[in-house]
Structure formats: structure tokens, C-alpha cells
Amino acid sequence: MLQYKAPIDDIRFLIHDVFKADKHYSEMSFGEDFSLDLADVVLSEMAKFVEGVFLPVNRSGDEEGCQYDPETRSVKAPPSYHGAFKQFVDNGWTSLSTPVEHGGQGLPHLLNVVFDEMCASTNTSLSMYFGLTHGAIVALEKHADEALKDRYLNRLITGQWTGTMCLTEPHCGTDLGLIKTKAEPVEGGGNEYRITGSKIWITGGEHDLVDNIIHLVLAKLPDAPDGSGGISLFIVPKVTPDGERNGIYCTGLEHKMGINGSATCFMSLENAEGYLIGEPHQGLKYMFSMMNSARIMVGVQGLGLGETAYQTALSFARERIQGRSLAGAQQPDQPADNIMVHPDVRRMLLSQKTMLEGCRALAYWVGMNLDMSQHHPIDHIREQAGDLVELLTPVVKAFITDQGYLVCDQAVQTLGGSGFTKDWGIEQLLRDCRIARIYEGTNGIQALDLVGRKLPMNNGRAVRHLINEMVAYADVCKDHATQARLRHGISVLNDVLAWLAMNALQDREVAGAAATPLLKLFGVVTVGYLLAKSADVAQEKLNGGDESSDFLFAKLKTRDFYFAETMVQVDMLMELIKSGKRHLMAFNDAEF
Amino acid sequence: MLQYKAPIDDIRFLIHDVFKADKHYSEMSFGEDFSLDLADVVLSEMAKFVEGVFLPVNRSGDEEGCQYDPETRSVKAPPSYHGAFKQFVDNGWTSLSTPVEHGGQGLPHLLNVVFDEMCASTNTSLSMYFGLTHGAIVALEKHADEALKDRYLNRLITGQWTGTMCLTEPHCGTDLGLIKTKAEPVEGGGNEYRITGSKIWITGGEHDLVDNIIHLVLAKLPDAPDGSGGISLFIVPKVTPDGERNGIYCTGLEHKMGINGSATCFMSLENAEGYLIGEPHQGLKYMFSMMNSARIMVGVQGLGLGETAYQTALSFARERIQGRSLAGAQQPDQPADNIMVHPDVRRMLLSQKTMLEGCRALAYWVGMNLDMSQHHPIDHIREQAGDLVELLTPVVKAFITDQGYLVCDQAVQTLGGSGFTKDWGIEQLLRDCRIARIYEGTNGIQALDLVGRKLPMNNGRAVRHLINEMVAYADVCKDHATQARLRHGISVLNDVLAWLAMNALQDREVAGAAATPLLKLFGVVTVGYLLAKSADVAQEKLNGGDESSDFLFAKLKTRDFYFAETMVQVDMLMELIKSGKRHLMAFNDAEF
Q1: Whose CA, among A267, B143, B529, B544, lies 20 to 30 Å from B503?
Q2: Per the domain annotation, does B334 fall within a domain?
């Protein structure tokens, strides 16, 4: 059975000690009552909630799946989800970081990131019924007129209704410029339109957990220019304001490898009533405005799923006895030693542990900067924070989901045959995690976003600042071996960026070829920086006589493990990037 | 839907051109009628059979699964398997490389390796009902007395009955010394014993495709010494020679992530009638004698599953249009270019293609050497071939299943969201492939086998010979860039082996820590050698005016891709190995 206790120690260590969030948040305005002491209380409540309510219906949701009834075109969510979802709404977990003026709690987004991690750890599928609602809330809040806000925001924030994002169509996912869904203005209807088309991959497009579902729909107006500059954003409720069933229906469910408790719907818009959000043809821009938080959420799914996989694998390894230590029997009174004596098993477990802690640091760092980019009173801090969020969001999304998936995979391997069975449940985490590398923009698209959009932003201002910060830290890094290796990693990153500037400007395919290994290099080095810093902070606390010494000593060893096992990839990644595009483009179609 | 055509061109190229099998097999005795021309005919028939009979019931088998009836303790295999299994038996595919004197066809084992690949490509689960029978045949042939041979061999070889291997028990998988199953001699019963115990993970332990199932069972005699030196091997038929239902029952099925069409059984032996094979307490040795072919078979499952995943991904990529080439529109008449214009998509596809071709070369090379080790008339060739098989069997098993799994994973990613759905079927390949890295000895165990048993064999004779062969080839390698990189790879391997000899003799945990990256290094370098050689052979054929030029040119580009993308790992692997054990062993239990 899956084992999970929220990693509260690590979460608090990161927030308070590594990122000194107390200092930053004290300078931002999050309502009079907010303090990080309150945040600590919230964290404990979160842990209690997900462990007690979400985790127990994780496996049942996978087994029950979602049921589609073609007669009524309705969808039943897993029956075991109903009670948990109700508690989720009743306890106010939907409104953590949403604006107070619309019924939200106005807490920092960082707490949402933490909560997203815990939800993914305990029930990714269930959490997704509300997951995309947050995007709908942000879009409405930022771009909709007051009438639409009044009508929808409050009930989305309180979880009375859920939201969706209707982007993808059967012939286009990544390339939204190709969408065919049409919106016709209703004559004399003011902001009202009639929308017709087909959408696929709509998470929570139809289900029976709430009475109304608020769809955000991308569609083209009759006068729309071709391509991605001709897309507008509409709000299309399942039930219209006058209580009628609107013409937006689920026409079937995807049959998937994982996240079986989450209803992934084919949707048909049949002259559905909808209302334009903001200006015409600005839909893609509005979508991008909520993309950072959505992508961070998906990145954090990789982290959360990995965490439960690791905890379960560790619990198995501690109990499984098999074979003897290569150094001689360690438990001579037992018929065999437990498998944690084997270096190979330890490598599997420690790869999981160290990568998770590194990815958590990365995700929270970006989460805190998201708050700072919106709330910090000092302009240049807000700007720097915004740069960091833009730059590292694709890394959070792609690197953490790739690594989180590997963690789940290593956890399966740690259990051997038991990992392959449904009894232990890790195989479900692996299946559930597989989609995180695909949706919200495949990880290949994230890499192109990093190379093509984020690196060149403001003439490279964001990446320069990140590198400067890492260099400055390396100069004061307390551990000399780490210092040398970190400096090497940073210099490789610098070197690669210079190479790219030289070579990719003339040939964009070279940038395309470099994108995926470059994103990985960013992830490896940035996580290395954060783990080195965490270890120094731990060392300081140890020097100061802190007594939680297992946790703090482990931070030093975690850093050492990461630098021995993961930082060694940087030269290989550089070589790979510098091999350019020739070996990729040389094959003609018949040669594949 | 899954796409698969047997890669006959590549198979023939390897057998005839790269490995010059014609020369080797002409010196061995495989019955008067055998020639490699006959083998070519057999290959075409194989392809027709698996494409037409196995593939069509691949998905249905996954969906139907196996059904257990607790009343009768019986198992129904997927209904759609029955017709395909009957054709499999009727067409004689069970007896390819089994001895003529017991009704087999006496063909080279290499053909079996090819057939195993094709079966895994088209229906891994179905093929496993017969897969382990081969091990039972080998064990009987080598170690059983004539009476047992007469009674069982013929009907196992013709596929009238199937066989199992009953090794694992609930508390022990890897460490068989811990087994508890007991065998009591029957007084005055000659070779007859009564066997009692529990076994788990028994593939095909019970099913309705045949009338009788012949179990090979590891058990302990009353006077058995402790540990692995006290295990004996028994044959336990489901139906005894006098037609009685024997006391060996299925008590349940595993619920698994994949290979759902394969019945993975909990078995209970309840005073079951069994007969000792060979000598008492020699069971583990006998098991090892059939382990090479079983491990090669599992390695080849990774290859076969990967091949179908790749072909399906390629077919998808050729049809999917989305976005534009970074070099400007390539199909301006269409609304978008097909996704094969993108460097990142090409990398995913080419990683799959090149790794599969390299792994196929590795598997067939070892398969051919297995034949030579048994049938070659010249002593030292037989010995060298045997060395190669021993040395590389763990590499075939672990490296190819790890890489085949990555191929399936990359294929899923190539399809994006479609890869995650059941419609395309690649997700099933990924799930089916996951177990190959675990069963027949986890890949971690394979690495320990390589480091702890295979490298030291005869004072390192096998590995020295392999390295000499690669060095000799590098000297005559026609492509200079390849030559330099291959030499570097070989020297890294040499260097690591020297380091290991220095460091691991005093400390076996250092060897344990090195095992997994070392096995990977072996795989990467050996596959590099084989792809370099293949490219040179292709170049020769091109120089000779061969007209199948797409295939042959692709071999050159495949080598270039592999050396640019995969051989770059060697330095990192070396660094990882030389980092030793400290970072792995430093954590105490509370620090995990």
C-alpha cells in the first residue's frame, strides 16, 4: 500500500531557512492577518487533510475510473471521490491563494504550490477536478469585465463550480493556430456569442461532482485573422445564467494509461452560448498569462507523485530481507539482511530522495518568486522575480516531471516484482505521472520555450541574473569540493549559452536541436545550486547547535550524493548540445 | 493502432553481412537440410505468422486479461488467445531449435532469438505461455533421466503441453537460498517425492490453453543443507502419468501493471507428486544452466517491444502535421508541416531507431555465439564463444530491457497526448516492457552477475578477449571520427576495469556500487562497436554497388547518431564509477 506523510520538515526548512521567506513575505501585503506562522498552521492542516481524505480514495479512483453515459452525455466521476471532494470544498481548500474580494483567502501562491504537491502525492486525479479551475479564475480576474467576474468568480473560488480550459482540437494540440471552433456574435446580444466546434483532452469537461462547469474556450470570430493571432477566449458555462442546459456536451472519454479517476473528455460545442473575455483575437495572449501557474502546477505533480513513490519504496526496502551485505552479514540473527545494505538499492533510493529534495527547492523557489513578481513593493525586485519565474517555469514543468517520472520508475524497480503489481500502488503513480511530461505543453515544447522565448527575453537579462546569482553563491559556498563542481557546472552553462548565441542565431534548427539537452542542463545546474545552498544552511544550523541533526546531516550527504551522481552529467550535456543538428537532420524520410 | 512489420532487412543484414553467419554455420552441424537459405525462408514465415496471428490479438489480450475462478482454482487465458495459440502449435513454432531426436527441428538458437524478438513485438503476453517451456525443455534434456525425457520432452517440444519455472516464494525472489518448499521421498517410490509449499510469480502456472502443464519446482529435501546449496529441482506435472489431477493448484493471480494476457500465478503445492531431476541439492546449478537462454529471451523482449513502439511512433509522426519547421515552411501547401521537421522529434525517433538496431546487433551476436559455444567443432572457438555468451548475457538482459523500455517511453512521448491513450497502444508496450527489467533477475542483479561472476571468470579471459576484439576492429575501422571515439570508449572501459581491479578486491561494496554504471558502460561501448562495424559493412556494400541504398546509407547515419548522442556517456559513467561507494553508504537509516 502507498505510504505517505507530507514532508513537512523539508517544506519548512526550504521556506524558512533556505529561502528566508519570512523576510520576503513581511515586505509584501497578504492581508493583515497573514504571517508565516499562520502559514505553518495551514501546512499542518494541509498535511492532515490530504493524508486523511485524498490518499484513502487514490487507488479506488484508479479502479473505478470515470463512467460515460452516451444517452445523457453525462459523466460519473469515481463514486469514492464524492465525499472527499465535498470535504475539499467545505474545508475551503479551493480558495487558498485567490483574491479576498471574491471570497478567496488571499494567501501567497507559494502555499498553493505546496498544496499542489501534497495533492499530487495523495490523489492527482481527484485534485485535477479543481486543478484547472485556478487557471479559469486567473483569466477571469485579469481579463474579464465586472459583470462576468460577479457572475462566476465567487462560485469558482469557493469550489461550488469547477472550471476547464478548452484549447486542444483533434487536429491540433501544440499548434493552436490551427483551431476550427467558431464563435458567431449574437445580433443585439451584446457580449454574447454562439460557439460551435469540437474539443479534446478536456480535463473535467463533464462530471457529477458539481452542478455547473465553467468552460474557458478558445474559438475564432468570423473576422479572425489566420493563425494564432486570430484566437479569442470565451466563457461557456454548462448551465446558462437563466438555468438552461447550454449546448456544450461531453461526447466521450479518453481511455488512458493513467489518471483514470480524472475525466478526460471529448467535448462538442453545439451553438453554445458564450461570452467574450477581454478583447477579440487576444485569446492566446490571455492563455499565456495563466500558463506559468498552470505549468508550475504540472511540474509539481511530478514532484508530488515521486515523493509518494519514494516513501513507499523506502518503506518496502526497510522491511524486505534478501541476500547478505557484500561487507558480510549485517543482521546475522535474521536469515538475510534487509536490502538497504546493497549499494545498488541505496543508489536507487538516494537518487529518488536527492532529486526530489532538489526539485522541491526549485519549485518552491519559483513559487515564491511568483508571489514576489506580483506583490513585492520594490520595482526591481518585482522585475527580477518575474524574470526568474519566466525563465524557470519551463524548467520546473519539464525537468521536474521528467525527474519525477524517473523517481517513480526507480521506486518500482526498488520493489522488484512487487513494484509491478497493483498491490503496492507505485505502478499507478508511474502511470499517473506519465501524462505530466505531455500535457500543458510537452516537455519538448517547454525546451523550445526556454531556448526560443525565455533566454532571449530582454537581451538575456533573466538568464544573466540567474547565472550571476549562482556565481555569487559559489564564491561563498562553504564546501570546497562542492564549490569547484558547482563552478564547473556554471561555467559549462555559460559556455553553452555563448556557443548557442554564436551558432543558433544563424540557424534556428541548431537551437531546436539544443533545446532539450539545454533545458536539462539548466535543471541539473540550478538544482545543484539549490542543494549546495541548502547544505550550507544546514551546516550553519548544525554549527548553531540545532538538534534536528539527522535531517540536517542528511542535507550535507544529499548534496554530496547529487554532486557525485547527477552533476557529472554537465560535460556530456555540453558535448551533446555542441554536436549540433547535423546528425539529427541527415536522415531522409526513407532512412528512418 | 500498433504498426509492425518484421524488420527483415535489418535481420538479414546482421546475420549474413555483419556476422557472416553463413561461414560459421557451415562449419557447425545442424542437420543435413539446414542452410542459411532455409533460415531466410523460415524468417519470412515467422514474419507472416506474427504479423497475421499474434499482433491482431495483442490488444484484446490486454483488455480481456486472465480470469481466475476460486471455486475450481482454474484460470482462463484471454479468450482471443486460443485460436492464435493453436496456430502457433500447429505450425510448429514451438520446436524451432529443439533437438530432432525428441521431435524438434534442430535449427540454430539464433533463429529462436529472432523469433523471440518478433513474438515480443507482436504479443509478449501470449508468447510467454510457451516462453518458459523452453527452459523446461533444456533442463530436462540436460539433466533428467531417460524415463522423464521420454515422458515429457516430446509433448513439451511440440507445444501440446507447456512448462513453468517455480522458483520464487513470497519471502524470497533474488535470494533463493531462503526457499521453504519441502520435498519428501515416497517410501519405495523410486524417484517419486511429495512436495508441499507456496510459489509466487509463476508465469503460465495455470491456464486453459493446453491439457497439461509441466512445472519445474525448486524445493528442499529433508536432509538439505541450509542456503542455496540445498535446493533440488523437481518436475511436477499438473496431471500425473496415471491421469490424476496432481496437488499443484493456482490460488490466485497477480494484478499487474502490464502483460495482462499472461497469467502470473500464486501456486500452492499440496502434497504434489513430483520427480527429482538429476542429483539432489543441484537444483540451483541446473537452473543456472538454462539461465543464459532465458535471460537472452527477456533481453530480446525489450528489443521486440521497442521495435513496435518505434514503428508506431514513426507512422504517427509521418502523418501528424503541427507547427512549422524552424527553417521555414516545408509543406507550404498544407496548414502545417509534419512533425518530423522538428529536430526534437527527430531526436526522439532516431534515439529509438539507432538504439534498437544496436541492441538487435548485440542480441543476435550473443545468440550466434550461443550456437557456436555448443556446436562449433573447433575447441577454442567454442570456448571463446562460450566466454562471450557468459560475459554478455547480463548485458543483453539488463541493457536491452533498460533501453527497450526507454524506446517505448520515447515513442509514447513522440505521440504526445495520443501516446497516453489506449487507442494507439504504445502505452501497453510501455507497461508490458516494464517487467522485463525485473524478472529473470532484476537488472541490478544482472549488473552484480557481470561484476562479481563474469568479469573474474578464468582470470578475466572473457573480457580481455572482448576488448582485444574491439581494439582490433578499431584499428581497421574505416571512419576516422568513429575510430577515435570508439578507441576512447574502449580505453575508458579498460581504465575502469583496471580501477575496479585495484579498488574492488579489497572492498566488495565498491564493486557493488560500480555494478550498474559498469554494465551500462559495457552496453554503450559494445553496441558502439557493433554499430561502427555495421556501418563499415554497409559502406563496403555501397562501394560494391549495392542498390538498397536507403537502408545502407541509413546505417552510416545511424552510427553517426549513436556516436554523437550515446557514446558521449562514457566519461560520465567512468566518473560515476570512480566516485566509489562513499556517497552511497554515508547515509544512516534515519537520514533516508
Answers
A1: B529
A2: no
Q: What is the DSSP letter of A77?
A: P
Q: How far off is chain B from A202, nearest CA to CA, in Å?
A: 12
In the residue annotation, A169 being an active-site residue is answered as no
CB contact under 8 A, A430 and B172: no
- Structural domain includes residue B411: no
In the predicted structure, residue A462 carries a pLDDT above the cut 80: yes
Contact call for A344 and B444, based on CB within 8 A = yes
Contact by Cβ (8 Å): A102, A81: no
B447 and B578, same domain (yes or no): yes
- DSSP annotation of B478: S
pTM above the 0.95 mark?
A: yes
CB count within 10 Å of CB A86 equals 13
Written in H, E and C, the secondary structure of A295-328 is HHHHHHHHHHHHHHHHHHHHHHHHHCECCCCCCC
Residue pair B267/B248 in contact by the 8 Å Cβ criterion: yes
- Give one DSSP letter per residue of A415-480, joined into a string: HTHHHHBTTT-HHHHHHHHHGGGTSSS-HHHHHHHIIIIITTGGGGHHHHHHHHHHHHHHHH-S-H
CB atoms < 10 A from the CB of B579, how many?
A: 19
Contact A592 B353 (CB under 8 A): yes
Residue A345 · residue B443 · CB < 8 Å: no
Residues B107 and B168 occupy one common structural domain:
no
pLDDT digits over B336-345, tens only?
999 999 999 9
| A169 & A207 share domain | yes
Same domain, B95 and B16: yes
**What is the domain-level CATH number for residue B85?**
1.10.540.10
Report ipTM (2 d.p.).
0.97
Mean of the per-residue pLDDT values of chain B: 95
The set of cell numbers assigned to A70 is 452516451
Q: Helix, strand, coil % (nearest 5) of chain B? A: 60, 10, 25
Q: Are residues A212 and A238 in contact, defined by beta-carbon separation less than 8 angstroms?
A: yes
Looking up residue A169, the CATH number of its domain turns out to be 2.40.110.20
Which residue, A98, A109, A121, is CA-closest to A49?
A: A121
Q: Which of B213, B231, B234, B215 is nearest to B223 (CA)?
A: B231
Residues A118 and A199 in one domain: no
Does the beta carbon of B589 lie under 8 angstroms from any beta carbon of chain A? Answer: yes
Single out the residue in A245, A263, A281 at which a domain terminates. Answer: A281
- Structural domain that includes position A244: 162-281
Q: Which residues pair with A270 in a beta bridge?
A: none
Q: Pick the closest to residue B389 from B465, B444, B497, B440 (CA basis).
A: B465
The answer to whether residues B104 and B210 belong to one domain is no
Q: Tell me the per-residue pLDDT of A291-328, one tens digit each, with 9 for 90 and over.
A: 888 999 999 999 999 999 999 999 999 999 888 999 99
Per the domain annotation, does A360 fall within a domain?
Answer: no
- Total domains in the fold of chain B: 3
Domain boundary among B124, B139, B154: B139
CB of A109 within 8 Å of a chain B CB? The answer is no
- Please tell me which of the candidates A321, A431, A509 has its beta carbon nearest to residue B326: A509
Question: At B140, which amino acid appears?
Answer: L
Please answer whether residues A165 and A135 qualify as being in contact, where contact means their C-beta atoms are separated by less than 8 angstroms: yes
